Amino acid sequence: MNRRELESLLLTLESTPALIARGAEELGEELVRRQHSGGGFSLAEHVWHLDALEREGSGVRIRRILSEQEPTLADFEGDRLARERVYRDRDLEDGLATFAIARNRNVRKLRAIHNSDWKRRGKQDGIGTVALEDIPRMMAAHDRAHTSEIADLLAHLKEGKPFPAQASTAVA
Questions:
Q1: How far apart are CA 154 and CA 157, in angstroms?
Q2: Mean pLDDT per 10-residue section of the chain, whose length is 172 residues
Q3: Residue closest to 94 by CA, chosen among 151, 147, 17
Q4: Which residues in 77-98 are b (16+ Cβ under 10 Å) and which e?
Q5: Nearest one of 58, 76, 68 to 135, comparing CA atoms
Q6: For residues 33 and 44, is the Cβ–Cβ distance under 8 A?
Q7: How far apart are CA 123 and CA 119, in angstroms?
Q8: Residue 130 backbone dihedrals phi, psi, to 5 degrees
Q9: Across-strand partners of 128?
Q10: Residue pair 47/33 in contact by the 8 Å Cβ criterion
Q11: What is the pLDDT of residues 37-63, one digit of tens each?
C-alpha cells in the first residue's frame, strides 16, 4: 500500500466515530439500548464493542507487531465481551468519547510507522499470518460492517423502516 492509499484509509478510519455520533443524535436513552427483532447489537452495544476492539484488539495488535517478533495475537470475542460487560447498559456518550480517543491514538500510531515496519507480521488466532499493513484494512472492513448495521438500526428506530431479512452482528 502506498502512502496516498494509506492516508485515504486512515482518514476513513478517523471519521468513523464522528459518523456514528451524528447518526445517534436525537435518540433517547430507550432507543440507544433497543435491539431489532432479528438480533444483533443495540446502538450502545455497537459503540462499546467498537471501543473495546479499538483498545484491546487493534491497539494491542499494532503495538505487539511493532515490538515483538511474529507475536501470536489473540482473537477478539466481541459477542462474549458484550454480554459479560453488559454494553447495552453503558452510557452511549461515554462510549462514543472513549472510542474516538482510542481510534485517534491508533491512527496516530499508524501514521508514524516507518515504511520498513509495514511488513512486520504476527499470527492472529482464527485468521493466520497478518502483516501490520493488513491491520488498517481489517479495521476499515470491520467499521464498514458495523456502520452498515448501525444505519439499518437507525433507519428502523428513527423512521420505522424494516430490518434486512438476516441481520447479524459484525464481530472481530
A1: 5
A2: 91 97 88 82 96 97 98 93 95 97 98 94 96 96 95 86 58 53
A3: 17
A4: ebeebbeeeebbebebeebbeb
A5: 58
A6: yes
A7: 13
A8: -130, 140
A9: 124
A10: no
A11: 677 899 999 999 999 999 999 999 999
**Those residues with Cβ within 8 angstroms of residue 56's Cβ, 6 or more apart along the chain or in another chain:** 76
H helix or E strand, kind and range, residue 61: helix 59-67
Reported for 127-135, long-range contacts at CB under 8 A and 24+ positions apart, including other chains, are 127/75, 130/61, 130/65, 130/73, 132/62, 132/65, 132/66, 133/1, 135/58, 135/61, 135/62, 135/65, 135/110
pTM: 0.90
Give the CB-side neighbour count of residue 49, counting CA atoms within 13 A. Answer: 28
Kindly state the DSSP code that residue 162 receives in the 8-state scheme.
P
Q: How many residues does the chain have?
A: 172
First to last CA, the chain: 22
Grid coordinates representing 5 are 492509499
Which amino acid, one-letter code, is at 162?
P
- Phi and psi dihedrals of 126, rounded to 5? 80, -10
